[in-house]
């Protein structure tokens, strides 16, 4: 069984690919309007797997699209303007897990997925 970090990285990569597929369907004006979001997705998809700890990964793995959650928090906090990229991403992830309100806002993985155990060893 894959370890949690590998599973998490793969899930973020899959979410990133889904964003890319959606963007391909947009016309140039729509892409320009979503440039800020696109930049955030690109930046966070690469950085998040490198800065999260085990408990944060476990929390975020409960969601269908953990990248979406991070992007929305990132954009709402205007953290993307910060030159301290790594520290700001860590802060955004901390806020997501600490608040714990994403459970009521974002789509969770199905119960079937929860039945599979994650091997942390």
Short description:
The chain has helices spanning 4-24, 28-33, 35-51, 54-60, 66-76, 85-99, 102-105, 111-115.
Helix-residue proportion: over 70%
Radius of gyration: 15 Å
Poorly predicted regions are 113-121
Shape: globular
Main sheet attributes: strand count, strand direction, barrel closure: none
- Our measurement of the CA-to-CA distance between the termini, rounded to an integer number of angstroms, reads 9 Å
Could you report the average pLDDT, rounded to the nearest whole number? 84
The assigned structural class equals: mainly alpha
Helix and strand element order: HHHHHHHH
Strand elements, count: 0
Distinct helical segment count? 8
Strand content: under 5%
Write up this protein.
It is a single chain. With 121 residues, the protein is mainly alpha-helical. It has helices at 4-24, 28-33, 35-51, 54-60, 66-76, 85-99, 102-105, 111-115. Residues 113-121 have low confidence and may be disordered.
Describe this protein with a few key phrases.
disordered C terminus, 121 residues, mainly alpha
Topology:
Blueprint: H1 4-24, H2 28-33, H3 35-51, H4 54-60, H5 66-76, H6 85-99, H7 102-105, H8 111-115
